[in-house]
Design brief:
It holds the Pfam family LolB. The protein is of the alpha+beta class and about 210 residues long. It is built from four helices and eleven strands. A hairpin with a 5-residue loop joins strand 3 and strand 4.
């Protein structure tokens, strides 16, 4: 059995999972998919607009569900450049449970006891400390609505990313976009779900702060 990230006592105080289990918004019919999107002028323009975002921050609700390893938390994501980003998970009291800082030449993780760990593989480090498998490399792209390394993806009729399928050794990752924030320019994801077999990661973004 994998070790739980939070204690049972903490889990009782963690934000309700129901906040992340809201029914998905009905997106419009698929417009294009995969390489066919090369001919979708609006999608190409959207990709360029998203790639111009040089820095962004977002925060919200995080859930990781896999067998007995269930983690519910608040998250904060900060992205500054190609090799600089931060993922912070906190409990309802605001106490740090996991703090990942990735910088050029330095990858640091601080656990809930304040102990620091260093490695050249942040995803593996998080797995060793928490039992959670998080596809960090592509998550950076998926968060803003880009397909990352995936070539198999679908767009809706509004030329927004609807789903992504990325092959992986342990099984394909399936990313589903359930809602977008229309108050941002360009529109950015508001709810998304990542699945790999029985493994599920849910993210709900409360707000975005972007710089171009």
């Amino acid at each position: 059995m994998r070790s739980r990230f939070f204690s049972t006592k903490q889990l009782l105080r963690i934000i309700p999972l129901t906040a992340l289990l809201l029914s998905a918004c009905n997106l419009n019919q698929i417009k294009t998919q995969g390489s066919a999107s090369d001919n979708d002028v609006q999608w190409q323009a959207r990709q360029q607009a998203l790639k111009k975002i040089s820095q962004y921050e977002t925060r919200g609700a995080f859930a990781y569900i896999e067998d007995t390893n269930k983690t519910y938390a608040r998250f904060y994501w900060q992205d500054k450049a190609d090799e600089r980003y931060r993922l912070l998970l906190t409990n309802p009291l605001g106490t740090t449970e996991l703090d990942l800082n990735v910088m050029p030449g330095v990858i640091e993780v601080t656990d809930n006891k304040g102990k620091k760990y260093y490695s050249d593989n942040p995803a593996e480090m998080i797995y060793q400390l928490t039992g959670m498998v998080i596809p960090l490399k592509n998550l950076r792209a998926w968060l803003v609505g880009l397909p990352g390394d995936a070539t198999n993806f679908e767009l809706d009729a509004n030329h927004l990313l609807k789903s992504v399928t990325l092959p992986a050794p342990e099984g394909d990752w399936l990313v589903t976009y359930q809602a977008y924030d229309s108050s941002t320019t360009p529109n950015l994801p508001q709810r998304l779900e990542l699945k790999q077999g029985e493994r599920i990661i849910k993210l709900k973004m409360d707000n975005w702060d972007i710089q171009q």
